[in-house]
Give the backbone structure.
Amino acid sequence: MSRRFTKTVLVSFFLLGASACSTDISLSKRDLGLANGAGGPSGSNGTDGRTEPESPGVDGTTGPTGPVGDNGSNGSGRTGDGGTTGTTGTSGPSGVIGDNGSNGTGGIGQDGRDGRDGRDGRDGCGIRPITVAYPARPWTADEAATVGPLPYINSASRRLPLLQIGQSTRYVDGTRYVKDSQVSFAFDVMGLPPRAAIVGVNHAKLRLNVIKLSRDRFTFTELLCLVGETKLCSGDIFTASNWLAHVNPTFFPEAGPFNSTFNQHYMTREVGTLGRDKIYAAEIMLDIETEFLHGAPVTNALDIVYGAVSPTARLAKNTLKFVVADDTYVSDGAILLGLEEDTCKTAELGRSQGR
């Protein structure tokens, strides 16, 4: 039965059902006059579609090799963990290089001294370098009157005047020089922390610019002396018989001289001639401890710098007075100090003294 006929019967069935819902309806196609004609022969099955064999895809060609990338720049090495300066112990012993941080930058403290005794960073104290220069100045009238005995004295036949630094007895062809005199000068060392807080002396030097003109055979009779309460000399005293009367017996032999370093620094430096005189000139740089004090009973430069000041007190001022004799012109000079202060110790001393 065709699909069209079926739909018609169903519609009719529902229409009839509206009037007689309870009647059993059994009508055949024949009764309805709707019988189909004899069906035609069944059509033969269609031929199955031919399956085409799968053909493999053509491989794609290999693309050109890409250019080699630029080498990456070297990466900055990172300080190893723990290699940075340790907290409160910056560069102290065993803290120069942090754990697992070998070669880490910043692991070494200033001059390798930070963190001494593990105190660096505590209350902001530590090791502090001190570099100062104290220029030479003339003596005051009071200093000249109260200084005490000098290396040389006047005699009945000759006076040896006392000059100030920068003064000369003669001036020839632009050159100043001194003859048969003692040249005085002083250094005011001041403003230093207590000696007990000084943990290192990098340098302690005496610088002088000097000139000597000489034609006699006693060229090396030049002398540099610390005068006052402490008397110390470097150089050579008079040896000629007609000059021995000028050697002050109340000054020598207590003051030495203990070495000839002063002479050796410049009396071998002949720089020219003036008439028949030889000119010796130099900027002398004497190490106070190893040269000026060599062989002397005082061996520590700080003994000279601090004098009789208490080691627990700050140095307000200590005046060091010197004399050079007898044919040396001194144009200028200075005391140069390079010290290391433990500021933790300075603070501790200040607290103990109520400062």
